[in-house]
Design the sequence.
């Protein structure tokens, strides 16, 4: 339930950020102007410096993303070491594992959308791992082309579509199977988690990078 609550926080903060983010890399050729190169990064810079409460909203989205991954991993560890998946919970365990992987992929695509140096290094790592997926000449190359395309413009558009539309729909579908029918909303604990995310958003601003 806590993971789902953080998922809602991510959806709301991400929807606000969508109004100001530009999913376009642009033209970075030697003859191009400075404003046409890496427009995705420039839009995030504008969110930080010019949009009212933009930096705070981005901080909340960033820390909520980390919280969701942390809560999902903690939940998986608890289910495993308590052995609850062994009795009548096989389907919940399988969908939970898939949800955990999808959650990490969702965080990865959002992490790269800023297209700073760190994000570009993460893209290079992800693309290399995909290219080397066996059998390399068939599956790896095909997957790399589908996921990453052929340029940074392709990457921005595809990661943006994955992050804000495709993966959230997949997660909601999996949650429909995974979440138990007697799910209880613990308002005090949920409020505490949201409050911690807000406080961290104010005290620990996320770096823009270069």
Sequence:
């Amino acid at each position: 339930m806590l993971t789902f609550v953080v998922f809602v926080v991510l959806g709301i903060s991400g929807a606000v950020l969508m109004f100001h983010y530009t999913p376009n890399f642009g033209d970075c050729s030697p003859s191009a102007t400075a404003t046409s190169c890496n427009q995705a990064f420039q839009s995030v810079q504008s969110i930080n410096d010019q949009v009212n409460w933009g930096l705070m909203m981005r901080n909340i989205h960033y820390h909520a993303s980390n919280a969701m991954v942390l809560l999902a991993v903690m939940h998986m560890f608890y289910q495993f070491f308590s052995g609850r998946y062994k009795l009548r919970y096989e389907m919940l365990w399988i969908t939970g594992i898939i949800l955990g992987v999808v959650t990490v992929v969702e965080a990865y695509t959002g992490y790269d959308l800023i297209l700073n140096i760190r994000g570009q290094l993460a893209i290079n790592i992800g693309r290399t791992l995909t290219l080397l997926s066996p059998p390399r000449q068939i599956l790896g190359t095909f997957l790399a082309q589908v996921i990453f395309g052929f340029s940074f413009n392709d990457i921005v558009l595809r990661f943006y579509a994955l992050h804000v539309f495709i993966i959230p729909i997949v997660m909601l579908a999996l949650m429909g199977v995974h979440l138990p029918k007697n799910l209880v909303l613990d308002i005090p604990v949920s409020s505490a988690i949201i409050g911690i995310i807000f406080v961290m958003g104010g005290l620990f601003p996320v770096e823009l990078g270069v």
